[in-house]
Amino acid sequence: MSDHEREEFLRVARRAREAAAGLAPLPRSVKDAALHAVADALVASAAEIVKANASDVARARDNGTSEYMIDRLSLSPERIEAIAAAVRQVAALPDPVGETVRGNVLPNGLELRQVRVPLGVVGIIYEGRPNVTVDAAALCLKSGNVAMLRGSSSAFDSNTALVGVMQAALEGTGVPSDAVQLVPGTSRESVKHLMRARGLVDVLIPRGGASLINSVVEESTVPVIETGVGNCSVYVDAAADVDMAVDILVNAKTQRPSVCNAAETFLVHADIADAFLPAALAALKAKGVTVHGDERVRAHSPDVVEATEDDWYAEYLSLDIAARVVDTLDEAVAHIRRYGSGHTEAIVTTSQPAAKRFVALVDSAAVMVNASTRFTDGEEFGFGAEIGISTQKLHARGPMGLPELTSTKYVVTGEGHLKGETPPAPGIGCSNA
Amino acid sequence: MSDHEREEFLRVARRAREAAAGLAPLPRSVKDAALHAVADALVASAAEIVKANASDVARARDNGTSEYMIDRLSLSPERIEAIAAAVRQVAALPDPVGETVRGNVLPNGLELRQVRVPLGVVGIIYEGRPNVTVDAAALCLKSGNVAMLRGSSSAFDSNTALVGVMQAALEGTGVPSDAVQLVPGTSRESVKHLMRARGLVDVLIPRGGASLINSVVEESTVPVIETGVGNCSVYVDAAADVDMAVDILVNAKTQRPSVCNAAETFLVHADIADAFLPAALAALKAKGVTVHGDERVRAHSPDVVEATEDDWYAEYLSLDIAARVVDTLDEAVAHIRRYGSGHTEAIVTTSQPAAKRFVALVDSAAVMVNASTRFTDGEEFGFGAEIGISTQKLHARGPMGLPELTSTKYVVTGEGHLKGETPPAPGIGCSNA
């Protein structure tokens, strides 16, 4: 069985690889027309898609899945309209492929250009939201990449229908219909095939909780971009405006608690704790937030529950927040370095030197000065679409838009240029001689 | 033993991590002064370094190491002067850290800046050239990174002496002396510790042959940048200038055969084969090159030996080259896609459409039009120094200079900005709600 599944996976992956070669050089007009064809086909096939989705939903109900998860899984004609509209929005975005990132004429007359090219085949591992199937395919197609999609097995019928509709819509558009691929099978094994497909798949983007991401990093030989885990902190400096600090904290925690850029911890300088904590704790309580505090926070209110070591690491994604009093800005930085996930941290301060030091020392994808952590987002940053928020340092860090789905290639044009002797430069380059 | 070695490794890695936090925010002036202190100390300690090196050389001789490898391993006062001069050259290069890569004011008034920051701790696995120990440390230091160095065990005494001198030189410069670290131990295990140090080491750059690089990619949980394997091809198009094509081919193959951007294969269009091959084979023969050709190449000379499937994959690094006649440009591209290592390919042609098609379809880090493959090099590209040539697509592709040793961070400055409701954008971002 496993052998058969692996054969089947390799067959699909090789077709994806082949499609990548055909997709990479296509001009924007062809890709945009294909995206519109996909959007039209999704709307036209809404009944068929909803029917397939109904079997996923029925299976989920039989398995006792929560209503919340069933809502995320469910498709309706209206939701399919919205998904199609998002595809049209992607078509309207600029094409990153072909952009000259840098270019100049070298002293010897060679023309050097570094141009954006697609990554190739992008593997995406995600959970039970079928809209991701279409969103990811559209972002990949626009950036010239083939999408190898591996959604949750709970949405397999929906995803099969959606990918079938998209593949059929691509026929005749100039974009290979193999440019959108569903990883065959629903077993744990099928994910492993994707993780071991180095040479066929260029990058893997796992979307989900920390344990999924860790297992992918552990097992994958394909390069991985880690996304989405957010244990974000708000630091209230000694020199903060108290009202602003309370507003930012409440917004960061409660405006949408279930997302990765919501605050999960706040740290307050001891010098301002007496002024800040009563107001902050009252405001959080009014919003239904449970505060998990250290002893010095708990001294301000009996409602604060005792924080454990686990609370400092927690990504609650709920109306909970960890809280600690610190004696210095550097102690806040040390706490963030130790427990944070490198996503987003905010400082609230009127002190320019404090802001500068916090920005310099905090090692996270985004650092906010006097703004809510909730602004770390591709749409807010003006990218128009987001494939995820990278919390690692290689390739892309922070919100990833279409350019982050590309690599580059150097194009060097000469007139018969030959290499002569040149003095060695510092470095550890390839010379084995 | 292994447990002790692992403890020892973790102790060093944690000190490296700590040093990274101190090194990242340092201004250029402090880093440059530290580099000059390192250069001065290397020259002043030449006798001590040469003595340590002599014990590596003696051990290598006892082991029957070739004179060629012993030459690569050997240090002399003159070579140490040259190594120190390279460190001073790195000091003279611009500092990539702090550069604003992009910046604008968002519609809501938030100021957004994406700035370059160091990667953190960079692990480098390399072979028996002790100059790499210093070159790598200097490039890392200049880009604000801590270097965790793991050279060949054959150079262990030399590397221990070099790192000792560098660490001592950093005392009092403001750069933490832990910013340069040698991985403890010489066993295979000690490399594994480095490969599994996710969270402590930010990136691993293996330098060496394909088998070393493959084993690192296979076993590492730390993100890896693959470098240096070059199976580069020259394609002689139907519309080539024959003299230019012969000159480029001979230069690409013979100017320095042992390096990764030397040509290992040439492909010639059938329409020009009768004009090109006699001249090319004679010119290569005059330079002592053995051609491994297919039947159509062999028809032109009895000196051409029969190419096997292995020859198409070979990175000879010697005076050998594989050769094949193709019927179309697309057949040349298909050959390169199948057998190439994605390093550098060249086309020789007077046809603009042929050049354009070759550049668009070839999926390699660098594509040369009417120029030798030998130009793919950080020094030639004007980067001033090179940490390696990436043959992968993530993070960096092609010659890597100092900016490729950095990541970025978003700095967002507001005046108490709070997030309001915004319409959802396309994407598969972190929203779990």
UniProtKB/TrEMBL annotation, chains A, B:
- Give all residue intervals belonging to the Aldehyde dehydrogenase domain: 4-287
GO-annotated cellular components:
cytoplasm
Q: Source organism's superkingdom? A: Bacteria
Keyword NADP among UniProt keywords: yes
Q: Name the GO terms of the biological process aspect.
A: L-proline biosynthetic process
Molecular function (GO) terms for this protein are:
glutamate-5-semialdehyde dehydrogenase activity; NADP binding
InterPro entries xref list: Ald_DH/histidinol_DH, Ald_DH_C, Ald_DH_N, Aldehyde_DH_dom, G-glutamylP_reductase_CS, Glu-5-SA_DH, GPR_dom
Q: In which pathway does it act?
A: Amino-acid biosynthesis; L-proline biosynthesis; L-glutamate 5-semialdehyde from L-glutamate: step 2/2
Enzyme class name: oxidoreductase
Q: What is its EC number?
A: 1.2.1.41
* Catalysis performed (reactions): L-glutamate 5-semialdehyde + phosphate + NADP(+) = L-glutamyl 5-phosphate + NADPH + H(+)
Q: Where in the cell is it found?
A: Cytoplasm
Output the HAMAP family linked to this UniProt entry. Answer: ProA
Job of this protein: Catalyzes the NADPH-dependent reduction of L-glutamate 5-phosphate into L-glutamate 5-semialdehyde and phosphate. The product spontaneously undergoes cyclization to form 1-pyrroline-5-carboxylate.
Q: Which family does it belong to?
A: Belongs to the gamma-glutamyl phosphate reductase family.
Q: What is this protein called?
A: Gamma-glutamyl phosphate reductase
Q: Organism, per UniProt?
A: Actinomadura namibiensis
Q: What is the lineage of its organism?
A: Bacteria, Bacillati, Actinomycetota, Actinomycetes, Streptosporangiales
